[in-house]
Every structure is written in C-alpha cells, then in structure tokens.
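Hi V.,

Quick status before I head out on leave. The structure for the redesign project is tokenized and pasted below; the design run finished overnight.
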C-alpha cells in the first residue's frame, strides 16, 4: 500500500502497518492484491501513540491480536477480556520497530521542480548540477533546501525515492533485474546491496509470503481516502497475497 499524506507518501509493504493519527487527511492506493485490517482507537488512547505517521513492522503476535480484534463485534471497556486485548495491542504498537519508508516532499518551488523530475522518472541518471539547470537554482541552494525541508541530504532523498519506487515494483511482482534498472541501479547486485543495507535483508526475504486466511477480504488496485475525524487515530495492517 502507498499512504499519501500532506507530508509525502508512506510505503507499507507486506506484514507492515501504518499508524495514522486522527485528523490526518490521507489517501491509500494498492499496488497489488492486498488484505487489510484497520483498527480505530478512541481519543482517550491516543496519548500512548506517536503524534505523526509511522510505518512499523508487524510481529506474529501483533498480527494475531489484530485478527482476533477484528473478529470481535465491539471492544468495550467493561469486558475484562476486551480491556486486556486492547492493552496488548497498544503495547505491541508502542514496541513495534519503525521502518524508514517515508519520502518527505520539499515545498520550495525550486526544490519541488527537482523532486518532481525525479519522481516522474526515478531511473534518471542526471547529476544534481544538470537537474538544477532546469530548476533555475544553484546546486548549493538545492542541497540546502533539501536538507532543511526534508531533513535529508539530496543524495539520501534520491536513494529513498529509488527504494520506495522499487518496493512498489516488487509488490507488483516485477523481477529483480527490471526493478534494479527502473530504480536507477546499473546492476541487480548493486540494488540488492542497497536494499540489504537499508532494510537489513534481501528483497526476496522481505517479501516472503506468509500463510493467508481464506476469510480475508482482498482489494486490488483500489484507492480509498480518509478525511479528518474525531477519533484518536487508526492503524492499518496490510498483507500481500
């Protein structure tokens, strides 16, 4: 899944979840067949959660807790079993490891022109000086804008763009060679080395399938939009089929 917010896109691969605070306008797009579960938290619980979006790893225990919660008609604060279940889910969410799968977008018109050119074609091999010529700005200005607006150097931002683009292609079933070329890498081995360095494993292991429940609802290539609400936030957990 790709979750688009005002701050930029978040990529949510298989067996990961995204935490979305309340009143955060967002749009969700599916890159492949996806089974998704959504948990909505009441406002009184949000103080235990981060104030900004996060993509986190979903442990086997958290996955089972989410599935169990979704099978329960309504969780109330008068049922001891429900109280324990909610508490365990919140503890798992707080302890979940964050995954660096966001791409902050610059806001200055000059840096946005550079960013847009690369987002339209992540495999673009032009250097920053060449990109700056069309953006109407000096190289040092663009480097300074990227650092201040995205909290990343331009080189790190470009690598993150290529990684997220590669994740979308992998989710759609593309082969490693094709993914490497479209993400701007000269060889599959160079792409795999970057992937391992960033996410700690190979693409094949990262996207390894897990047993799926036959009762899960499947969505393909869909788009849903979330509007600001009065709730405390919600977590979406997706599993690729």
């Amino acid at each position: 899944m790709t979750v688009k917010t005002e701050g930029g896109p978040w990529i949510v691969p298989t067996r990961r979840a995204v935490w979305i605070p309340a009143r955060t306008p967002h749009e969700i797009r599916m890159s492949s067949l996806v089974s998704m579960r959504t948990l909505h938290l009441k406002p009184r619980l949000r103080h235990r959660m981060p104030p900004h979006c996060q993509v986190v790893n979903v442990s086997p225990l958290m996955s089972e807790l989410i599935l169990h919660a979704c099978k329960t008609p309504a969780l109330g604060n008068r049922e001891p079993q429900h109280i324990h279940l909610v508490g365990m889910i919140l503890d798992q969410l707080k302890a979940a490891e964050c995954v660096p799968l966001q791409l902050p977008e610059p806001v200055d018109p000059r840096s946005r022109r550079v960013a847009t050119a690369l987002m339209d074609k992540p495999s673009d091999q032009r250097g920053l000086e060449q990109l700056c010529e069309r953006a109407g700005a000096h190289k040092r200005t663009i480097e300074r804008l990227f650092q201040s607006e995205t909290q990343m150097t331009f080189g790190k931002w470009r690598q993150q763009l290529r990684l997220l683009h590669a994740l979308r292609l992998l989710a759609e079933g593309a082969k490693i060679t094709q993914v490497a070329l479209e993400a701007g890498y000269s060889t599959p081995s160079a792409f795999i080395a970057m992937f391992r360095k960033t996410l700690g494993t190979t693409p094949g292991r990262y996207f390894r399938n897990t047993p799926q429940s036959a009762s899960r609802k499947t969505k393909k290539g869909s788009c849903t939009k979330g509007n600001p609400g009065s709730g405390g936030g919600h977590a979406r957990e997706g599993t690729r089929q």
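Above is the designed sequence. The chain has nine helices and nine strands.

G. will cover questions while I'm gone.

Best,
W.
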